[in-house]
Amino acid sequence: MTSRTSRRPLWAGLLLLIALPSLAADGGGVVSWKDQVARISAGADTGARGQAITGRLDALGLAWRGEDFEQKEKQGRNLLVDLGGPEGAPLLLIGAHYDRVAVGHGATDNASGSAAVLELAERLKARPLSHHRVQIAFWDLEEAGLLGSHAYVTTPGREKPALYVNFDVFGWGDTLWMMSPQADTPLVGALRKGSETRGLGFQPGEHYPPTDHLAFLKQEWPAVSFSLVGGGEIDPILAVFSGKSPENPPKVMQVIHSPRDTVAELDDGRVDDALDVIEQGLRDWDAGAR
Ligand SMILES: [Zn+2]
User: Fold this and answer.
1) CB of 285 closer than 8 Å to CB of 180
2) Among the options 119, 122, 142, 233, which is catalytic?
3) Spacing, Cα 241 to ligand 1 middle (Å)
4) Which of 3-12, 26-35, 124-133, 141-150 has the lowest mean pLDDT?
5) 196 labelled catalytic
6) How far, in Å, from the CA of 250 to the mean position of ligand 1?
7) Average of pLDDT values for 149-166?
8) If we measure between CA atoms, which residue out of 210, 81, 77, 221 comes closest to residue 154?
9) Span from the CA of 153 to the centroid of ligand 1 (angstroms)
């Protein structure tokens, strides 16, 4: 419907004024993954991106803390949330980097993964796991060389998690791509089954682009990582990261670290399915843990 009205009635302006503050603090109501990606991507710098995340955490009633660090003469700030769980239970850590490169808006890389982690935090707060405590992390300075996650894992006295689950590039497509050092673990099995049920592609494997899970693996701490992409993109992405130039560059490599990395490139068609599959996979994994 097209409106030809050029003058907005006064009451409409007043309503807008009343509505704005409640939009800024969303009150903990439903915020779609895509809207959350837009909020994070709108931030002009890492600090503003972090405020979009902590604003949502505040709205959800999730207490967070900033952990400042210095690595390679750069200052950064990880954001950490403790969702709690059974006392003395092993730790499940779930995270994504929230910083971005200078060019573009970092929507795919990695507001998309940060919004996925916020969504899982909300779900795991509403229905906690039985056998694991859960903590959530948003890493700074991934783009500068995994500095935030490295600072985290090398902090003296840090608790080694039973598993770290990373999210990076979760913006479109029909295939759940999972970095898993082992091909057949209970978690991989649960995700394969869940993906089949939902008609979602599932590709686990050890070859995967560098991101924060590497800081954990370097400590010999167990870690996996998830992306949501087009199934046909995976092989060409790996080709690019092994130094080749495929004839048809995959969309991911055209978008990230470029002016094209905006919300316009996102497609949320399979995001909810993918998050459902991951949530259920983690619940199955948790139920099988002894
Ligand atoms: Zn990234």
Assistant:
1) no
2) 142
3) 14
4) 3-12
5) no
6) 16
7) 98
8) 221
9) 18
Q: What is the pTM of this model?
A: 0.90
Residues 91, 216: Cα–Cα separation, whole Å:
14
Residue boundaries of the structural domains of the chain: 31-288
Residue found by looking up tokens 């210095």 in the block: 70
Q: Which of 129, 124, 212, 113 is nearest to 167 (CA)?
A: 113
Separation of CA 83 from chain center: 16
Q: Which residues contact 63 (CB under 8 A, 6 or more apart)?
A: 57, 81, 82
For tokens 């991507």, the residue is 41
pLDDT average, residue stretch 76-90: 97
Residue range 215-237: mean pLDDT, rounded? 97
CA of 96 to the centre of ligand 1 (A): 8
CATH number for domain 31-288, candidates 3.40.190.10, 2.40.240.20, 2.60.40.10, 3.40.630.10: 3.40.630.10
